[in-house]
Structures are given as C-alpha cells and as structure tokens.
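Could someone model NAP with this protein?
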Amino acid sequence: MTTFGFIGTGHLGSMLIKKFVETGAIEGAAILASNRTAEKVERLAEATGIRPASNCIVAELSDVIFLCVRPLEVRDVLGDIAYLLNSGKLVVSVAGDVSLEILQSLCTARLARAFPSMASLKLQGVTLLAFGDNTTAEDRRLIAGLFHAIGHAVPAEEKDFAVLADLTSCAPGYFAALMREFVLAAERRDIASELAERLVKQTLLGTAMLLEEESFAGLIKSVATIGGITEAGIKIIQREAPGMFDQLFLATEVRHEQVRTKIDGHG
Ligand SMILES: NC(=O)c1ccc[n+]([C@@H]2O[C@H](COP(=O)([O-])OP(=O)(O)OC[C@H]3O[C@@H](n4cnc5c(N)ncnc54)[C@H](OP(=O)(O)O)[C@@H]3O)[C@@H](O)[C@H]2O)c1
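Reply:
Sure, complex below.
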C-alpha cells in the first residue's frame, strides 16, 4: 500500500488531507503528517484518522510526500530532510513560485508541482499540475487521479503557473471582492447590504450552474437583449473592466517577482 505524507497542515495541507480522506481517495490510515505546531496536526488526526509524525518520519516512511509549507519555508524544510528524499520518493510541492528546478537542486526525489484551489473544499477546485522529467507515467496518473477526486486536475506549463493560478487559485477571492463591490454599490442606493449580499450570492450560484452548459459570451447574449437594461450595464463593465484586470495581472506579477527574488536569495 502506498503511504502518503504531508508536511505542513495549514490552510491548504489540512484542506487536502480532509478532502482526500472524505472522498476516499486516500485512507486516513495511509497518511502520515507533520506540522511545525504539533497541536494542529494532532487535532487533524483526531478528525481524520491520519497519523501525526515528525518531518523526518514523514519523509522516511512515505512514498509520496506533499510539501505544503509556504514558499520561503521550502528551502529550510527540504534542507533538513533532503538526505531521505531519494529517487524512490515522489515529492509534490504546492508552494507557489518554487520551481521544479529549485526543488531538484534541493533533493534527488522525483518531483511534481501542484497548485490547488480552496474551491476543492466543495470538490470543485482546479488544481494545476506540472511534472519533473524524472516522474513516471504512473506518478502522473496517481497525482492527477487524486486531484480529480477533489475537483479538476489540469496539466499546465510551469512557466504559465502564475497567470493560471490567478484564474484558478486566486479567483475565488477576486470573485468575492468583485461581488462585494456590487453589493456596496447597491447599498449606496439604499438597499440593505444583507439583502443585497443574499440576492447576489444566490444569483452567482445560479449563474455558475448556467455556465456549466454555456460560454460567457453565450450567457451575456441570452441575458442582455439589444437595447435593454442589462446591455446598458454590460457596456459599462466592458469599458471599465479591461484596465482593471490588466492592472491585476501586473500587480500579481510584481508580487511573484518579489517572492522569487526572496526564494533565490534563500529567504
Ligand atoms: N491557501 C491557498 O489557497 C493556496 C493555494 C495554492 C497553493 N498554496 C500554497 O500552499 C502553501 C501553504 O499555504 P497555506 O495557505 O496552507 O499556508 P499556512 O496556512 O501558513 O500553512 C503552512 C503550514 O506549514 C507549517 N510549517 C511551517 N514550517 C514548517 C516546518 N519547518 N515543518 C513543518 N511544518 C511547517 C506551518 O505550521 P504552523 O502551524 O507552525 O504555522 C503551517 O501550518 C504555500 O506554499 C502556498 O503557496 C496555497
């Protein structure tokens, strides 16, 4: 039986463990997990049946190790356990901006990068996947299968990860921020914010379901009759939003560059 290890049980690590166990993709008993603050992993163990351990034990006893620490923590964590991570192990890093090249300079394990989304809490998240040259077809099948169990696994070029992660991992936050502005604008028109938020949330859920069978352009066409009210609103969005989204990509690009510089400078 394959043993799976998780190093780091923060927001993302604990979400992955909970969803893999809940969906039956991995049995709790097949998971070893470690975290800097031990109480966090112990609480998770009580809820999921996983086995708490130290980073070294996780690295030693697991066949597949999910590295779920922050990007600037990766060098230190791998530095301590690199001697255990040989080509017999598959390491899957979820750390943004830590390239396969950097990871490979830190250990000799087979390597993959995964960039999940918290939307996998609802089994709907997109996880971007990139694999090192030293991975096997079986590694790729195994990891894609696990992320399919909690959403959608999408292979991607590593060079595109930053922009694609804006569309997948950051997007729930962006959508929420946009809808919050919509609600606040209604509030400025004397609609109670609780009512506006409830109506927008419900409409957003309905819209997401319509989009299962419809493109964005198709949905706009079916809602916005020519010369009608919706069309007037859509023209404003089409005028104002391109600049905003271009600026959004520029801002996240700058942030990625800052993080990469820190990673290159060893934190
Ligand atoms: N959150 C997301 O939506 C998301 C999406 C895609 C990718 N990611 C990636 O996921 C990674 C984790 O993000 P997060 O949001 O889960 O951050 P987080 O909540 O801060 O979790 C990081 C965890 O790593 C633990 N940790 C730190 N140093 C450690 C060490 N030496 N040994 C063992 N555990 C250690 C921390 O322990 P403590 O309890 O002591 O702090 C913490 O629980 C990041 O690299 C991020 O780029 C996150």
